[in-house]
Amino acid sequence: MEKSNIFYRVVTAVILIPIAVLLIFKAHPYLIFSLLFVIMLGCVMELANIVKINGIERFFLVLTNSVTLFYSSFELNYELSYWVLLFVVTSVTLLFTQGYKSYVSHVGKHLFCNMYIPLLLSFSYRLLNFYMGREWLFYLLLVNWFTDTFAFFVGTKFGKHKLTSISPKKSVEGLFGGVFGSIIASLIVNALFFKTHNIAFLIILGVLGALVGQVGDLIESGIKRSENIKDSGTAIPGHGGFLDRFDSLIFTGFLFYIFANLRLI
User: Fold this and answer.
1) Beta strands of the chain (E only): which ranges?
2) How far apart are CA 139 and CA 190, in angstroms?
3) CA-CA-CA-CA torsion sign (95, 97, 103, 107)
4) Is it the case that residue 127 has pLDDT exceeding 70?
5) Between 150 and which of 13, 177, 238, 241 could a Cys-Cys bridge form, CB atoms 3.0 to 4.6 Å apart?
6) Looking at per-residue confidence, does 101 or 65 come out higher?
7) pTM for this entry
8) How confident is the model over 137-160, as pLDDT tens digits?
9) How far apart are CA 175 and CA 147, in angstroms?
10) Is residue 91 a contact partner of residue 60, using CB atoms and an 8 Å limit?
11) End-to-end CA distance of the chain, in Å?
């Protein structure tokens, strides 16, 4: 990565991280949801660009994803019924607006997007429903920040063994660096907030968070490479697009929701 890009990456992080921390602990939950909604919109628009969804079909995609985020975030009843309804509405709407050419592909893209972005992102917001929910949300973000930061700098400095062909720049050394960063994040959060003797629980979660985050990153890389695209966008200086920045969070939010629900700390 060019030095100028690293500079923008660091400056953006220095500006956005304190703002994010302030919002987590001081903002009304509805404001946090509004920011999550903006992130969702950014990710959906970028994914629409990648898989070439345009016109009225893009409007329909944004509409269904917005409804999915709202429905999933506030844990309304009849979730199974919602997904059945979404499938039916999507199938019928696309048949009459896009025709039968590549019909299954169109429906698949829409349902994939609804599950990949708004459904999984909603679990980050759901963390606020737990005891010490804001601390859980901060922990989620800190693990993502530390994993990405340690993986990036360790991989840049010491990376020699390629992790996978899906993302050629990722290295085994970077993966271990990310895992180490997640452990540091877990220790920091425990010292500041949880103060539990069950520190092994947090370390395991941190390590799993690092690994799951890497999987989320690779999935986004797979989506981009399937369409011969390097970056999902340019919305965040030094980081690329919304998907490039939040691909790890999309998956780790669900993991943290599961662990927070165990109530072991």
Assistant:
1) none
2) 9
3) negative
4) yes
5) 177
6) 65
7) 0.91
8) 999 999 999 999 999 889 988 988
9) 8
10) no
11) 40
